[in-house]
């Protein structure tokens, strides 16, 4: 029987449920060039308005997974685990979670992305390490995972290519913000990575894409149901992004913050809580612990013993970075030309903040992108960021800015004056807002 992609588009446009075969043939045709970009864009728009149920989302995710290579880690002697975050400000969890998990006896082939808009990208943070290769060949990727227990790299051309092509169309046709399509996009890449276990960090609040708990809960539920339906053990935490996760925002500064977290010289409490809670859920699902409390203790010991730091250092070295990066980090992370404390006009105890504006201030400084191909400066951003409940005044800075010039300092100061609120009771709720298991 002749396959006509326009019939699939029409059925979804009219609100009908698509079969797994229809979805599979449509995505296979798109990958092979038998379905045009115009037809794929029309399909995305139909899904945008009509949504997909869970069965359809599973079918779309599997079809996109099968559009390219699917990694096989059966030669490893332990479970294969990864984490995905929906993105925020000061979110450097991946940098510390991967080595923590590796130190607990699981393998972490973490395939990450670059930043766009107000959110920082994990790969951009690793670009701050001289020589670190975020796009190794398959042999080096596998060697690093096997020997270090973790490897953080970028998506290869052969992993879920249908997702990359469809996302490019969604980006220019205003169909990005759709739970069905977001779910398939995220999970197709994770399934193609050959994972046994996935833990999700769905951000919620002023610095997240999902502003409300209802929105975050909907996305978390979709991701968990589809991932488990596709055969990958998955759990999600909805976490607070009404303030930065770490006290640093900016690529090189977040890398420095992460290394200081791993060597226990400076520990942001919010970063530690999210990292340990995500690690605990992953370790339980991977069968390394029977319960969350035992897993929390195991992950905490990986940090305090220095084993996680050793795993991080080994990963950096194997992927081309300096063998002494963690010992001589200051020699490898060059400072920005201008570093200034920032004092703002208002003062008092911080009651709330517009976290997205902090992320956009990093972009203004040159440390983020407005277009995918933009060049960025890895040195700029903020550290020593004040948090909700902290007191600031004319003598206590709200942050320290790392800028290219004095004009950048002035722009950052202007934006930070719009970020913080001081009226009312500090809205500092729990950082772990919900857990979603099904």
Please name the defining characteristics of this protein.
438 residues; alpha/beta; Transferase, Pyrimidine Nucleoside Phosphorylase, Chain A, domain 3; Pyrimidine Nucleoside Phosphorylase, Chain A, domain 2; Aldehyde Oxidoreductase, domain 3; 3 domains; four-stranded mixed sheet; three-stranded antiparallel sheet; 17 helices
Per CATH, the architecture of the largest domain is: 3-Layer(aba) Sandwich
Backbone CA Rg: 22 Å
**Highest-level CATH class of the largest domain:** Alpha Beta
Which structural category fits the helices and strands? alpha/beta
Number of domains: 3
For the sheet with most strands, the description reads:
4 strands, mixed
The number of helices is 17
CATH-assigned homologous superfamily of the largest domain: Nucleoside phosphorylase/phosphoribosyltransferase catalytic domain
Q: How much beta, percentage-wise? A: 5-15%
Task: Please give the alpha-carbon distance between the first and last residues.
Answer: 38 Å
Assign a percent range to the helix content.
40-55%
